[in-house]
Amino acid sequence: MAQVTEAAGTAAALERLKQKRRRSAPRQVLHLLVAYPVLPGFILLMVAFAGVFGSYLYPTDPIKQVLTLKNIPPTFGRVTPYNLLPADDREHLDRSQFMLGGDPVGRDIFSRIIGGARITLEISVISLGTGLLLGASMGIVAGYLGGWVDELITRLVDMWRSIPFILVALVVAGFWSPKSSVVMLMLLSLVAWPPFVRQVRADVLVLRSRDYISSAKIAGASNMRIMLKHILPGTYSTILVVASLTVGGLILTEAGLSFLGAGIPDPIPTWGKSVADGRQYIGQAPHVIFWPGLALFLVVMSFNFLGDWLRDKLDPRLRQLD
User: Fold this and answer.
1) At CA 167, angle to CA 162 and CA 173, rounded to 5?
2) Residue 292: its pLDDT value, please?
3) Which of 113, 152, 215, 255 has the most CB atoms within 10 Å of its CB?
Protein backbone atom coordinates (compact mmCIF):
# COMPACT_ATOMS: atom_id res chain seq x y z
CA MET A 1 0.00 0.00 0.00
CA ALA A 2 2.83 2.37 0.88
CA GLN A 3 4.53 1.62 -2.45
CA VAL A 4 1.33 2.44 -4.33
CA THR A 5 0.97 5.74 -2.46
CA GLU A 6 4.61 6.64 -3.12
CA ALA A 7 4.24 5.83 -6.82
CA ALA A 8 1.10 7.97 -7.05
CA GLY A 9 2.90 10.88 -5.40
CA THR A 10 5.83 10.55 -7.78
CA ALA A 11 3.52 10.47 -10.80
CA ALA A 12 1.68 13.56 -9.57
CA ALA A 13 4.98 15.39 -9.09
CA LEU A 14 6.11 14.48 -12.60
CA GLU A 15 2.80 15.66 -14.03
CA ARG A 16 3.15 19.03 -12.27
CA LEU A 17 6.68 19.35 -13.61
CA LYS A 18 5.45 18.68 -17.16
CA GLN A 19 2.72 21.29 -16.78
CA LYS A 20 5.28 23.86 -15.66
CA ARG A 21 7.43 23.09 -18.69
CA ARG A 22 4.43 23.43 -21.04
CA ARG A 23 3.60 26.91 -19.76
CA SER A 24 4.11 29.66 -22.27
CA ALA A 25 6.21 32.70 -21.41
CA PRO A 26 3.19 34.96 -20.65
CA ARG A 27 1.69 32.29 -18.40
CA GLN A 28 4.99 31.87 -16.61
CA VAL A 29 5.14 35.61 -15.97
CA LEU A 30 1.53 35.57 -14.75
CA HIS A 31 2.29 32.60 -12.49
CA LEU A 32 5.29 34.47 -11.06
CA LEU A 33 3.17 37.55 -10.33
CA VAL A 34 0.47 35.45 -8.66
CA ALA A 35 2.72 33.07 -6.71
CA TYR A 36 5.09 35.74 -5.37
CA PRO A 37 4.46 39.32 -4.16
CA VAL A 38 6.46 40.89 -6.98
CA LEU A 39 4.31 43.97 -7.55
CA PRO A 40 3.63 44.62 -3.85
CA GLY A 41 7.32 44.23 -3.10
CA PHE A 42 8.24 46.63 -5.89
CA ILE A 43 5.75 49.24 -4.64
CA LEU A 44 6.99 48.96 -1.07
CA LEU A 45 10.61 49.25 -2.20
CA MET A 46 9.73 52.42 -4.10
CA VAL A 47 8.04 53.87 -1.01
CA ALA A 48 11.03 52.96 1.16
CA PHE A 49 13.42 54.52 -1.37
CA ALA A 50 11.33 57.69 -1.54
CA GLY A 51 11.13 57.83 2.24
CA VAL A 52 14.90 57.59 2.66
CA PHE A 53 16.06 59.68 -0.29
CA GLY A 54 13.03 61.92 -0.69
CA SER A 55 14.95 65.13 -0.09
CA TYR A 56 17.02 64.38 -3.21
CA LEU A 57 13.99 63.43 -5.34
CA TYR A 58 11.77 66.46 -4.91
CA PRO A 59 11.11 68.20 -8.25
CA THR A 60 10.40 71.30 -6.17
CA ASP A 61 9.97 72.26 -2.55
CA PRO A 62 6.80 70.47 -1.30
CA ILE A 63 6.05 73.43 0.98
CA LYS A 64 6.56 76.21 -1.58
CA GLN A 65 3.32 77.85 -2.71
CA VAL A 66 2.75 79.28 -6.18
CA LEU A 67 -0.77 80.67 -5.92
CA THR A 68 -1.02 81.30 -9.65
CA LEU A 69 -0.76 77.51 -10.16
CA LYS A 70 -3.32 76.44 -7.59
CA ASN A 71 -5.32 73.40 -8.71
CA ILE A 72 -3.38 73.32 -11.99
CA PRO A 73 -4.09 69.98 -13.77
CA PRO A 74 -1.31 67.40 -14.18
CA THR A 75 1.28 68.27 -16.83
CA PHE A 76 2.73 64.69 -16.99
CA GLY A 77 6.11 66.13 -17.93
CA ARG A 78 4.90 68.56 -20.56
CA VAL A 79 6.23 72.09 -20.61
CA THR A 80 4.72 74.14 -17.82
CA PRO A 81 2.43 76.91 -19.09
CA TYR A 82 4.77 79.75 -18.28
CA ASN A 83 2.21 82.36 -19.24
CA LEU A 84 0.32 81.44 -16.07
CA LEU A 85 3.32 82.14 -13.86
CA PRO A 86 4.56 85.35 -12.36
CA ALA A 87 7.85 86.56 -13.79
CA ASP A 88 9.80 85.59 -10.67
CA ASP A 89 8.74 81.94 -10.93
CA ARG A 90 9.21 81.26 -14.63
CA GLU A 91 12.91 80.50 -14.48
CA HIS A 92 12.55 78.09 -11.57
CA LEU A 93 10.12 75.57 -13.12
CA ASP A 94 10.86 72.80 -15.57
CA ARG A 95 9.21 69.70 -17.02
CA SER A 96 9.62 67.65 -13.84
CA GLN A 97 7.51 70.01 -11.74
CA PHE A 98 3.73 69.80 -11.30
CA MET A 99 3.71 66.45 -13.13
CA LEU A 100 0.67 65.43 -11.08
CA GLY A 101 -0.73 68.94 -10.81
CA GLY A 102 -0.95 71.50 -8.04
CA ASP A 103 -2.99 71.60 -4.85
CA PRO A 104 -5.37 74.40 -3.74
CA VAL A 105 -2.47 76.61 -2.59
CA GLY A 106 -0.18 75.93 -5.54
CA ARG A 107 2.10 73.24 -4.10
CA ASP A 108 3.47 70.41 -6.24
CA ILE A 109 1.39 67.28 -5.56
CA PHE A 110 4.13 64.92 -6.77
CA SER A 111 6.64 66.44 -4.35
CA ARG A 112 4.15 66.18 -1.51
CA ILE A 113 3.48 62.51 -2.31
CA ILE A 114 7.22 61.85 -2.10
CA GLY A 115 7.30 63.74 1.19
CA GLY A 116 4.38 61.68 2.49
CA ALA A 117 6.37 58.50 1.83
CA ARG A 118 8.71 59.51 4.67
CA ILE A 119 5.79 59.56 7.12
CA THR A 120 4.70 56.14 5.84
CA LEU A 121 8.22 54.82 6.40
CA GLU A 122 8.37 56.30 9.91
CA ILE A 123 5.04 54.69 10.78
CA SER A 124 6.26 51.35 9.44
CA VAL A 125 9.54 51.45 11.35
CA ILE A 126 8.89 53.41 14.54
CA SER A 127 5.23 52.86 15.38
CA LEU A 128 5.06 49.26 14.18
CA GLY A 129 8.44 48.41 15.69
CA THR A 130 7.47 49.80 19.10
CA GLY A 131 4.11 48.05 19.04
CA LEU A 132 5.76 44.80 17.92
CA LEU A 133 8.29 44.78 20.76
CA LEU A 134 5.69 45.64 23.38
CA GLY A 135 2.95 43.34 22.09
CA ALA A 136 5.17 40.32 21.36
CA SER A 137 6.84 40.57 24.77
CA MET A 138 3.51 40.74 26.57
CA GLY A 139 2.14 37.86 24.51
CA ILE A 140 5.10 35.61 25.32
CA VAL A 141 4.96 36.42 29.03
CA ALA A 142 1.19 35.91 29.19
CA GLY A 143 1.23 32.63 27.28
CA TYR A 144 4.23 31.09 29.07
CA LEU A 145 3.58 32.11 32.68
CA GLY A 146 -0.20 31.79 32.56
CA GLY A 147 -2.19 32.19 35.76
CA TRP A 148 -2.89 35.67 37.09
CA VAL A 149 -0.25 37.18 34.79
CA ASP A 150 -2.05 35.87 31.72
CA GLU A 151 -5.40 37.06 33.10
CA LEU A 152 -4.05 40.54 33.86
CA ILE A 153 -2.49 41.03 30.42
CA THR A 154 -5.54 39.64 28.61
CA ARG A 155 -7.92 41.93 30.48
CA LEU A 156 -5.60 44.88 29.83
CA VAL A 157 -5.79 44.18 26.10
CA ASP A 158 -9.59 43.96 26.27
CA MET A 159 -9.85 47.28 28.10
CA TRP A 160 -7.42 49.01 25.75
CA ARG A 161 -9.26 47.83 22.65
CA SER A 162 -12.50 49.24 24.06
CA ILE A 163 -11.06 52.78 24.19
CA PRO A 164 -12.01 54.84 21.08
CA PHE A 165 -8.57 55.75 19.77
CA ILE A 166 -9.84 58.42 17.37
CA LEU A 167 -11.39 60.37 20.25
CA VAL A 168 -8.20 60.05 22.30
CA ALA A 169 -6.12 61.35 19.39
CA LEU A 170 -8.50 64.26 18.87
CA VAL A 171 -8.27 65.18 22.56
CA VAL A 172 -4.48 64.99 22.49
CA ALA A 173 -4.33 67.13 19.35
CA GLY A 174 -6.76 69.66 20.85
CA PHE A 175 -5.09 70.10 24.22
CA TRP A 176 -1.45 69.34 23.48
CA SER A 177 -1.10 70.92 20.01
CA PRO A 178 2.04 68.91 19.14
CA LYS A 179 4.76 70.70 17.18
CA SER A 180 6.30 67.55 15.73
CA SER A 181 5.29 64.10 14.57
CA VAL A 182 6.69 62.37 17.69
CA VAL A 183 3.41 62.52 19.63
CA MET A 184 1.40 61.06 16.76
CA LEU A 185 3.91 58.28 16.17
CA MET A 186 3.77 57.34 19.85
CA LEU A 187 -0.03 57.29 19.72
CA LEU A 188 0.10 54.99 16.72
CA SER A 189 2.52 52.74 18.61
CA LEU A 190 -0.14 52.33 21.28
CA VAL A 191 -2.57 51.13 18.60
CA ALA A 192 -0.16 48.55 17.18
CA TRP A 193 0.53 46.32 20.19
CA PRO A 194 -2.84 44.55 20.97
CA PRO A 195 -2.92 42.32 17.81
CA PHE A 196 0.54 40.96 18.63
CA VAL A 197 -0.43 40.06 22.20
CA ARG A 198 -3.34 37.81 21.24
CA GLN A 199 -1.69 36.07 18.27
CA VAL A 200 1.67 35.48 20.00
CA ARG A 201 -0.06 34.32 23.19
CA ALA A 202 -2.00 31.73 21.19
CA ASP A 203 1.24 30.37 19.70
CA VAL A 204 2.98 30.25 23.07
CA LEU A 205 0.13 28.27 24.64
CA VAL A 206 0.90 25.53 22.10
CA LEU A 207 4.69 25.80 22.25
CA ARG A 208 5.02 25.63 26.03
CA SER A 209 3.69 22.05 26.05
CA ARG A 210 6.34 20.79 23.61
CA ASP A 211 8.91 18.22 24.74
CA TYR A 212 11.92 20.46 24.16
CA ILE A 213 10.46 23.04 26.55
CA SER A 214 10.05 20.36 29.20
CA SER A 215 13.64 19.25 28.58
CA ALA A 216 14.88 22.82 29.02
CA LYS A 217 13.06 23.07 32.35
CA ILE A 218 14.55 19.77 33.54
CA ALA A 219 18.00 21.03 32.52
CA GLY A 220 17.54 23.98 34.86
CA ALA A 221 17.01 26.77 32.30
CA SER A 222 15.43 29.90 33.73
CA ASN A 223 12.08 31.20 32.54
CA MET A 224 13.77 34.14 30.82
CA ARG A 225 16.14 31.87 28.90
CA ILE A 226 13.29 29.56 27.85
CA MET A 227 11.19 32.47 26.62
CA LEU A 228 14.06 34.08 24.68
CA LYS A 229 15.89 31.01 23.35
CA HIS A 230 13.11 28.47 22.86
CA ILE A 231 9.71 30.19 22.77
CA LEU A 232 10.50 33.38 20.81
CA PRO A 233 11.93 31.67 17.67
CA GLY A 234 8.73 29.65 17.37
CA THR A 235 6.66 32.82 17.07
CA TYR A 236 8.67 34.52 14.30
CA SER A 237 6.29 33.53 11.52
CA THR A 238 3.23 34.80 13.41
CA ILE A 239 4.97 38.07 14.25
CA LEU A 240 5.89 38.66 10.61
CA VAL A 241 2.37 38.02 9.36
CA VAL A 242 0.72 40.17 12.02
CA ALA A 243 3.20 42.99 11.40
CA SER A 244 2.58 43.03 7.64
CA LEU A 245 -1.19 43.07 8.17
CA THR A 246 -1.08 45.68 10.95
CA VAL A 247 1.05 48.32 9.25
CA GLY A 248 -1.60 48.99 6.62
CA GLY A 249 -4.13 49.79 9.34
CA LEU A 250 -1.65 52.13 11.02
CA ILE A 251 -1.08 54.01 7.76
CA LEU A 252 -4.84 54.39 7.25
CA THR A 253 -5.24 55.53 10.86
CA GLU A 254 -2.64 58.26 10.41
CA ALA A 255 -4.24 59.31 7.13
CA GLY A 256 -7.65 59.51 8.78
CA LEU A 257 -6.32 61.62 11.64
CA SER A 258 -4.51 63.91 9.21
CA PHE A 259 -7.72 64.22 7.22
CA LEU A 260 -9.50 65.34 10.41
CA GLY A 261 -6.72 67.80 11.22
CA ALA A 262 -5.46 65.82 14.24
CA GLY A 263 -2.55 64.02 12.62
CA ILE A 264 0.97 65.05 11.65
CA PRO A 265 1.23 68.85 12.07
CA ASP A 266 2.02 71.32 9.32
CA PRO A 267 4.11 71.91 7.31
CA ILE A 268 5.04 68.20 7.08
CA PRO A 269 3.37 66.74 3.95
CA THR A 270 1.21 63.64 4.44
CA TRP A 271 -1.12 61.78 2.10
CA GLY A 272 -4.13 62.13 4.40
CA LYS A 273 -3.60 65.86 4.67
CA SER A 274 -3.34 66.13 0.88
CA VAL A 275 -6.70 64.40 0.53
CA ALA A 276 -8.20 66.77 3.07
CA ASP A 277 -6.83 69.79 1.19
CA GLY A 278 -8.72 68.82 -1.96
CA ARG A 279 -12.05 67.70 -0.50
CA GLN A 280 -13.64 71.07 -1.34
CA TYR A 281 -12.41 70.94 -4.94
CA ILE A 282 -13.56 67.47 -6.02
CA GLY A 283 -15.62 68.87 -8.86
CA GLN A 284 -13.11 71.25 -10.40
CA ALA A 285 -9.81 69.58 -9.41
CA PRO A 286 -10.31 65.85 -8.68
CA HIS A 287 -6.59 65.17 -9.20
CA VAL A 288 -5.83 66.83 -5.85
CA ILE A 289 -7.51 63.91 -4.07
CA PHE A 290 -6.91 61.18 -6.64
CA TRP A 291 -3.10 60.95 -6.54
CA PRO A 292 -2.53 60.86 -2.75
CA GLY A 293 -5.57 58.57 -2.45
CA LEU A 294 -4.05 56.25 -5.05
CA ALA A 295 -0.74 56.23 -3.14
CA LEU A 296 -2.56 55.24 0.06
CA PHE A 297 -4.50 52.50 -1.75
CA LEU A 298 -1.41 50.97 -3.39
CA VAL A 299 0.69 50.95 -0.23
CA VAL A 300 -2.01 49.51 2.04
CA MET A 301 -2.98 46.87 -0.52
CA SER A 302 0.69 45.96 -0.98
CA PHE A 303 1.09 45.35 2.75
CA ASN A 304 -2.11 43.29 2.81
CA PHE A 305 -1.02 41.14 -0.15
CA LEU A 306 2.41 40.69 1.44
CA GLY A 307 0.78 39.60 4.69
CA ASP A 308 -1.45 37.09 2.93
CA TRP A 309 1.52 35.67 1.04
CA LEU A 310 3.60 35.35 4.22
CA ARG A 311 0.72 33.61 5.98
CA ASP A 312 0.35 31.11 3.12
CA LYS A 313 4.08 30.39 2.97
CA LEU A 314 4.85 30.27 6.69
CA ASP A 315 1.83 28.22 7.77
CA PRO A 316 2.66 24.52 7.15
CA ARG A 317 -1.04 23.63 7.01
CA LEU A 318 -1.57 26.02 4.09
CA ARG A 319 1.63 24.91 2.33
CA GLN A 320 0.21 21.40 2.06
CA LEU A 321 -2.62 22.75 -0.10
CA ASP A 322 -0.27 24.00 -2.87
Assistant:
1) 140
2) 92
3) 255
59/97 Cα distance (integer angstroms): 5
The rounded distance, in Å, linking the Cα atoms of 224 and 230 is 10
Q: How many whole angstroms separate alpha carbon 309 and alpha carbon 303?
A: 10
Torsion over CA of 100, 56, 115 and 74, rounded to 10 degrees?
Answer: 0
Q: Are 189 and 254 in contact (CB under 8 A)?
A: no
- Cβ atoms of 254 and 264 within 8 Å: the answer is yes
Which of the four pLDDT bands, split at 50, 70 and 90, describes residue 106? confident
Distance in angstroms (rounded) separating the CA atoms of residues 142 and 130: 18
Instruction: Give the span between the Cα atoms of 280 and 136, in whole angstroms.
Output: 43
| Fold of domain 117-319 | MetI-like fold (1.10.3720)
Which sequence spans correspond to the domains of the chain?
117-319
ω into 267 cis (within 30 of 0) = yes
Cα–Cα dist 89/288, whole Å: 22
The model's pTM is: 0.80
Please state, in angstroms and as integers, the Cα–Cα distance from residue 176 to each residue in 99, 183, 270, following that order: 37, 9, 20
**Long-range own/partner contacts, residues 53-59 (CB < 8 A, 24 or more apart):** 54/114, 54/115, 54/117, 54/118, 57/114, 58/108, 58/111, 58/114, 58/115, 59/94, 59/96, 59/97, 59/98, 59/99, 59/108, 59/110, 59/111
